[in-house]
Amino acid sequence: MESAGSNSSQVIRCSIQDNQLVINWRDGTQSRYHALWLRDNAPDARDTRNGQRLLESIDIPANIQAASAKLTDDGQIEIGWAEAHEHSRFSPEWLRAHAYSNHQQAEANCWRVLWDGTLYSLPRAHFSEIAQGGAALRDWLDTVQTYGFALLHGVPTESQALLKVVDLFGYVRETNYGRYFDVKSVVNPNNLAYTGLALSPHTDNPYREPVPTLQLLHCLAAVDNGGHSTVVDGFYVAETLRKQAPEQFALLATLPVQFHFQDQTTDLLAEAPLIRLDARGSLAAIRYNNRSIAPFNFAPEQMDAYYAAYLAFGRLINDPANQIAFKLAPGDLFMVDNERVLHGRTGFSSSGNRHLQGCYADRDGLSSTLRVLRRES
Ligand code: NM2
Ligand code: OGA
Ligand code: ZN
Predict the structure, then answer these.
(1) Which residue's CA is the closest to the ligand 1 atom numbered 1?
(2) Of the bound ligands, which one is closest to the alpha carbon of residue 356?
(3) Alpha carbons 140 and 149: distance in angstroms, whole number
(4) Measuring CA to CA, which of 78, 119, 127, 338 is 20 to 30 A from 113?
(5) Using a 6 Å cutoff on CB, does residue 193 contact ligand 1?
(6) Taking residues 341-363, what's their average pLDDT?
(7) pLDDT band (50, 70, 90) for residue 321
(8) pLDDT given for residue 5 in this prediction
């Protein structure tokens, strides 16, 4: 029953047992697939032009029976249905890729590299290279995904040049601060970012829901004294706290706090825990901003414990051993994953003409572009 095709030749045997397709692979492993799962995912349940599903799962008889399984001459696995549908064909390659039996939960986000202040070479690239697209762009975006930040040199020192960087991978997330914003010291600032004050490491716009997931900051003019940038891997710091004090980590991951921003035309308020976990308990997002956090309003018996956890987290974030510092020169830009890497700056004299431009963008656009670029390699 073996036939041509490298993947079908990996199939030693296929059969139906207990209403499941059982495949014995050449490497000695076995995979099992439930009849209902097979019917639900059969290629004939999809539009051939776009791969989108046409079938409503609720329309499949819950007791659907797989009657037979065979390897066809053209190397497909054919399931014969006892009910309405005669048969469905699957490629062995697809079945292998989607095998779920003997299942070990894949390590979620295993591609992330967490770092502290000893990360000795800053991930970086040159604008003229990534502007060509292809492998250079792929590698730079990959760096942002892996480390949660990356530098870019040689971005033209022109207003709005940072939008050209966004155009390479995705879409600007416009906010009340505009499509992009000028970070410089102004007379009547609506935000402390628009002063010469130091900004301790923070994530931007925690008072928004959803929070912008990427931030770009592009240097148009630097000053001699101060204005250094700092970045901290919030996931590294959170994992450190999880190890040191699991009960403090758990408090920060469950008790919601509020963040607030107000000016003449804006009143933004959002409530969320400082640490957000995904359904598997892995880190999903950090929200931390000393300037816009609202007064805690927990039950009195929670206040001491929460403050202890909050301050422990804050000390780790502000510990220079966890920070990387660098100075942006005109033409430099850095992009951070705003739900993972906190950024800040040292103070500078507001009489100088330091000028950054910033904007936000969406991370899903970045990961989509990255997957498309990876198809080509
Ligand atoms: N700016 C630079 O999220 C924050 O409030 C940080 C944001 C004003 C857009 C500053
Ligand atoms: C900001 C910010 C850093 C800087 O604008 O959100 O953090 O270097 N700026 O001015
Ligand atoms: Zn900021």
Answers:
(1) 193
(2) 2
(3) 10
(4) 127
(5) yes
(6) 95
(7) very high
(8) 46
Decide whether any atom of ligand 1 lies within 6 Å of the 65 Cβ.
no
Mean pLDDT over 327-355 rounds to 96
* Residue 356 alpha carbon, nearest atom of ligand 2: 10
Closest protein CA for atom 1 of ligand 2: 193
Contacts 24+ apart (CB under 8 A), 349-352: 349/196, 349/223, 349/225, 349/226, 350/185, 350/195, 350/196, 352/196, 352/223, 352/224, 352/225, 352/227
pTM over 0.90: yes
What is the per-residue pLDDT for 2?
37
Residue-wise pLDDT for 87-138, tens only, equals 999 999 999 999 998 776 666 688 899 999 999 888 899 999 999 999 999 9
Domain covering 2-100 in this structure, CATH number: 3.30.2020.30
CB 292 less than 6 A from any atom of ligand 1 = yes
Residue with tokens 């062995």: 92
Out of 3.40.630.30, 3.10.350.10, 3.60.130.10, 3.30.70.20, the CATH code matching 124-376 is 3.60.130.10
Say if ligand 2 is within 6 A of residue 338 CB.
Answer: no
226 vs 179: CA distance, rounded Å:
27
Convert the pLDDT of each residue in 9-33 to its tens digit: 799 999 999 999 999 999 999 999 9
Question: Which of 162, 177, 288, 345 to mutate to test ligand 1, by most ligand atoms within 8 A of the CB atom?
Answer: 177
First to last CA, the chain: 35
Could you tell me if the CB of 204 is within 6 A of ligand 1? Answer: yes
Type of residue at 72: T
